[in-house]
Hints:
Blueprint: H1 2-14, H2 16-22, H3 29-37, H4 42-60, H5 64-84, H6 89-113, H7 119-162, E1 166-169, E2 172-178, H8 183-199, E3 204-211, H9 217-232, E4 236-240, H10 244-253, E5 261-263, H11 266-272
Parallel strand pairs: 2-3, 3-4, 4-5
Antiparallel strand pairs: 1-2
Amino acid sequence: MKDELRYIGQKLIANNLTLAEHIVHYEDKKYTKRIEDSGLPVTERIGHRAELFAYFGEALCGETEAVAEKVSNWGKRVAEIAIKYNVSLSDALRTVASYRTIIWDAFTEELEQRQFAAITMLDVSKIIDPLLDKVCGIIGETYEKHNKMLMDIAYTALEELSVPVVPIAEGIAVIPLVGDIDTHRAKLIMEKSLGEGSRLNLNSIILDVSGVPMIDTMVADKLFHIVTALQLTGIEAIVTGIRPEIAQTIVSLGVDFGSIKTQANMQQALKHLGFRQFQATK
């Protein structure tokens, strides 16, 4: 049995390039066109495919443990290349699935001619299938990590936009807050306000919460910490936009806003900071 597996393994290694070139015959035309449109060079595709066939051959020759690491590295490398050329995950996995069929078709007739035992191909599958599963798993993991990285980048950009620091005059800026404030966002607000306050050399920051749907004990506590941190750096913090219904909720919860400077709206806050309304004379 080992001799038969070794024979098939040596055949795979010797004919790996030919087998790789035949993969295209097992692909539907739409899939082939998508791969071609991706810009991935044909020679590079065939080279990577031939490399995997050779690894399968080595595994059948008894080098299973060494091949497992090679296959893992191959899967990661090929997935990164596929991502680079914007090949979808489904298309990347579809190619891997065709290797088993190609090997079976390539050797079925020859096995019959050489009168190998029927169980031989079953043994071939027992060796190659786990390697194919490993490749698919690694490709999937690599795509998942890449997608998570893109999501993290997008989320970071979105977070930056969710806490805009808008300078409106020398030493004065406004942070209009829209949406719910949780622990993570409160930390971001503090970091952004302190960082921009120092960078812009601000004297006052207006925190406008008119777009915050709910201010409960937790949110009030976070605002208190933000205001306190700004005061410790010498920046006056004013909270504006607390709606009447929110004010009622704050009172009913027993939240102490006594140490926080508040103004009804932006106009009053600017007036408090020394701005005056001037009407143009005709």
